[in-house]
Amino acid sequence: MTMDIQALRAAAGTITFIPEHYELVMEDNTPKGFDEKERTFIWEDPHSENSRIEVSLSLETGQLMRLQIDQECDDTIRGSAIEAGSTTEQAADIAKAFMIRHHPNYAALTWIRSEIKRKYVEIEFRAEVGGLPLPRSGCEIRLDADFNIVLYKAEEFPGMELPVWPDRLLVSAEAAKQRILQDMEMQPIITTLYPSIYDMEGEEDQHRLVYEPIQGRRKIDAVTGEPLHNLQHDLLPPTVSITPADPGNLDNAYTVKPVLPSRTGTEHSSPDEDSDLIPFWEAQLGIDTERYVLDKPRGDDQNLILLYFDKSDMNEDEADQSATDPLSVDRYFERRWGKTLRNLQAAYMIHIDKATGSLEAYQYKPESSDGEAVLTREQCWERAELFLQRFFPSYAKYLRLEVKWDWKDGVTNSEQEGDEGEAEKRDREFFHLPLYMDQYRVRLERVNICVSTMTGEVLLYRSVSHEKIRELEACKFTAAVSAGSALARYAEQLDVSLRWYMDGDDGTAHYRLIYDPVHKRRAKTGVSVSEYLLEYIDAVSGELIWSKL
What we know:
This protein is an alpha+beta fold. Helices cover 23% and strands 32% of the residues. It is built from 12 helices and 28 strands. The strands form 5 sheets. Strands 11, 12, 15, 16, 17, 18, 19, 21, 22, 23, 26, 27 and 28 form a 13-stranded mixed sheet that branches. A hairpin with a 5-residue loop joins strand 27 (528-538) and strand 28 (544-548). The longest helix is centred in the middle third of the chain and has 16 residues, at 329-344. The two termini are 42 Å apart.
């Protein structure tokens, strides 16, 4: 049963203090449209863009689901106040009093965790069974340095009974650890380490050849001792080499074409040089400039971004806008992020690398997607390959094509049926091509291409940085540490923790007791505790590489 909207509006204004000069700018159900669960209210300071208060109440019960208070303030003062000697115990008492007022299951939330994190104190309350917290069973609260509550986020119980502790003897932590190691492999990959993310020496980004643990994050059922998922669950799809349509292009390492305008300043291009690129790429991509108008070019020293809009869509329909509730989600988004949202509706979006003049990204939104698929996946790949030949001539040297798993082994019949169900006719086909340097895959670098099955047009193209390819080629990676040695170093750091895990979706969700792999170390600085996660083993030096949590 849905609560009365008037009652929700009255209740929302009592959750926290709302200054008189704040204006109500949004009141609507969220998420908007399908499966609306909450009524959300947003007040903003008309004199401060970043000062706002958001309150979300359950449409069914009126329960507070979310409170967020954003205010402009001096981060330096706030940070020093927390470092000076505030206590998490005091913050936890304030948070608990708030939780008791607003969470209907507060009596069951007996597990508490407090932590100073990024100039705030964060508190979590959960229900627990066997001394272990249950996911999605409580709330999170954040307090600032003055112990003001600035964030409250409730998590709904998924409508299932709380679990009971298994009556069977659990497998040991050591047995779970050995089960994880049983299928683990160390795969050499190339990755880029950033000082802001990794615990490393120096302040410059570093391209490194490392060993990545495959199956290093597998969860083990604490009752059966077996993994929750099959081997393929956490693996990237396999890849195959590409036979180039024109082998002669392999010596052309980059996409720059002979007809490309000369680039006199690769570091800092002039506006005139940018204007030379625009008609070139309009011609290359076949953009009808009689129908599509170019918005003001944007970008930075590295990239030129071009957005084209259909002239017939340029004039906004004022009548439709005036008929929309001014406090609706749509109108709020339009006021706050209107320009950004408008950019997403561009018919063409093109990213050009100024240093090389190459096409980094391309997106085309056809006027209509009505029609039937007439091209097979193989025919769509032919169209995609033609596009690569023009704009990434050396594609076969650096890229491999992802293919579907061979599901003959290691998967259940239901999983096979689910995979086959995805083979229905689609209006577009997607192709993913990871970047390789010799035999080593480059982490997170790949080309994506999407082709319409109705017209054969390329609808989406996202490339890799050709400047990065140059940098990686100069590194000449060679592994000096064996995969076996890397695995032994990794295994020394492996531990497991016992915890509750929510398995399944909303309709089948249930709790399972599992062993989760842990590769962490902690470092305390004052009242703050920094945690690090073991990510890789350096394939050249054998160094342990830790990421910052």
